């Protein structure tokens, strides 16, 4: 199994905080394969807008997030 995403919300806004960046960098540089290339899904608790981010090459990169109905 592979860990693929960390989902959390922020009270206002959906961009990585300083703490998020520290944790992204720490996990990416941990050397543990199960924590490589994790998608950070962050939702704005006010408007429910969801964005995705990945930490690559010492930078936070935004990903396109598509929500698909499973029905």
Can I get a quick summary?
The protein starts with a strand and ends in an 8-residue tail after the last strand. The longest helix is centred in the N-terminal third of the chain and has 11 residues, at 18-28.
Q: Can you tell me about this structure?
A:
With 71 residues, the protein is an alpha+beta fold. Helices cover 15% and strands 34% of the residues. It has one helix spanning 18-28, and strands at 5-10, 39-44, 50-56, 59-63. It has a 4-stranded mixed beta sheet. The longest helix is centred in the first third of the chain and has 11 residues, at 18-28. It is globular and about 35 Å long.
Topology:
Elements: E1 5-10, H1 18-28, E2 39-44, E3 50-56, E4 59-63
Parallel strand pairs: 1-2
Antiparallel strand pairs: 2-3, 3-4
């Amino acid at each position: 199994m592979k860990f693929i995403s960390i989902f959390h919300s922020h009270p206002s806004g959906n961009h990585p905080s300083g703490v998020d960046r520290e944790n992204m960098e720490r996990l990416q540089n941990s050397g543990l394969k199960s924590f490589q290339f994790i998608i950070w899904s962050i939702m704005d608790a006010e408007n429910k807008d969801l964005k995705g981010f990945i930490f690559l090459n010492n930078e936070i990169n935004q990903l396109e997030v598509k929500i698909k109905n499973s029905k």
